[in-house]
Design a protein that fits this description.
The chain is of the alpha/beta class. It has three domains: about 10-135, Ribosomal protein S10 (Alpha-Beta Plaits, 2-Layer Sandwich), CATH 3.30.70; about 145-230 and about 335-360; about 235-325, no CATH class. About 35% of the residues lie in helices and about 25% in strands. The strands form three sheets. The chain has a six-stranded antiparallel beta sheet with strand order 4-3-2-5-1-6, with helices on one face. Strands 8-7-9-10-14 form a five-stranded mixed beta sheet, with helices on both faces. It has a three-stranded parallel beta sheet with strand order 11-12-13. β2 (about 45-55) and β3 form a beta hairpin. α1 crosses α2 (about 100-115) and α8 (about 265-275) runs antiparallel to α9 (about 275-285). About 35% of the residues are buried.
Length: about 350
């Protein structure tokens, strides 16, 4: 019987809502390792070489090792004090299981453990350097066409800059209300394009961390730096923050947002249908209570400025917001399409996951 060996490495970031002691975090790691082992053996009949990990928090460490789904997890180390977060460097060797299947097992185990122990978990997978030369990994693609995977909010703005014939796939803005689902949707789209297209351009920002952890095994990923699409439309995250500094309670609108079928005005009509107008008025007042200003961003390619103005002014009047207009810029969209990826972009190499820290530099 042929048994393939696909080394797997990842950073798993655990976050809890309150400070938890060493016993709690030991339990998290032990449960994670046991769950991964059970998934690999139960689903894939894998032969486990090892599952090893080093968890770090505030300069103290926990170590864990598992070599069998039946023998349990060996733990050692201790945390010096209670903490809210633990960063775990994880390594998995499993014979007879493809690399992608190990990744799915780790992500599934992390999600299940996080739900059971009331914390959050983010898996940032990466291929160890040695794995790049393994016989199971095909050569990296060269001279492949690029593909854009984008939120529909950006499509009309970026399309004029795209090379003729570029493959484009877009997703509805409504996915943003469920970041985990958005991340899953984007990863599936990336997986389908991986190795066929290089680079894969992402028409998103950080977007509630939905893009953190995304990875392609055989293609580069490129995403603009910024908290969300507003940063892209304003030209940089710095410009967005400067605008927000003028009034922290600022709500932004663009043509793409207005045409996206989401937002407070759409929510209001749904609430009226579900709860009645009086209760809907109260719910929306609470939702919008901390906003003081509405900024409509005029993009150069906007086709219906007057209708957008009418919508934006109606929304501002309904919620008692100051109405402001300002010009946006397609600068980042043009650079993304042209392949001029400087300091305003996160670019990952094949096998490298998008990391949160990359948006902070």
């Amino acid at each position: 019987m042929h048994l393939s060996l696909a080394p797997f490495a990842a950073r798993v970031r655990f976050r809890s809502r309150r400070e938890m002691d060493s016993d709690y975090w030991r339990g998290v790691m032990s449960a994670l390792f046991g769950n991964i082992a059970s998934r690999l053996v139960g689903t894939h009949q894998a032969v486990i070489g090892h599952i090893k990990g080093l968890g770090e928090a505030d300069g103290s460490y926990l170590r864990a090792n598992c070599v069998s789904a039946r023998l349990g997890v060996d733990m050692e180390g201790d945390l010096q004090r209670s903490v809210k977060k633990l960063d775990l460097d994880l390594a998995v060797l499993a014979y007879g299981v493809a690399w992608d299947d190990i990744r799915l097992a780790v992500e599934g185990a992390a999600s299940q453990i996080a739900a059971a122990l009331t914390c959050e978990a983010l898996v940032e997978a990466r291929i160890p350097e040695a794995a790049g030369h393994h016989h199971d990994n095909p050569a990296l693609p060269v001279n492949k066409p690029a593909k854009l995977i984008s939120c529909k909010v950006m499509i009309d703005e970026i399309r004029p800059f795209l090379p003729a014939g570029m493959e484009v796939e877009s997703f509805d803005i409504s996915l943003h209300v469920r970041p985990a689902l958005l991340r899953e949707t984007l990863q599936k789209a990336i997986d389908a394009a991986d190795g066929i297209y290089d680079p894969i351009l992402l028409g998103y920002g950080l977007c509630s961390k939905s893009t953190v952890g995304l990875m392609a095994r055989h293609s580069r990923l490129v995403v603009p730096k910024g908290d969300d699409c507003i940063s892209v439309f304003l030209g940089s995250e710095k410009e967005r923050r400067a605008e927000a500094d003028k009034e922290p309670g600022t709500y932004f609108l663009t043509q793409g947002y207005i045409g996206g079928g989401t937002g407070p005005m759409t929510d209001y009509e749904r609430m009226v249908t579900k709860y009645g107008r009086q209760r809907a008025d109260g719910l929306l007042a609470k939702m919008m209570g901390h906003y003081k200003r509405l900024v409509y961003i005029r993009m150069p390619n906007a086709e219906s400025l007057e209708s957008d103005r009418a919508y934006a002014n109606e929304m501002a009047a309904r919620f008692g917001l100051e109405y402001v207009e300002r010009d946006g810029t397609p600068r980042l969209l043009k650079l993304l399409a042209d392949g001029q990826w400087g300091e305003d972009f996160v670019v990952t190499q094949p096998g490298q996951a998008i990391e949160l820290e990359s948006f902070m530099t």
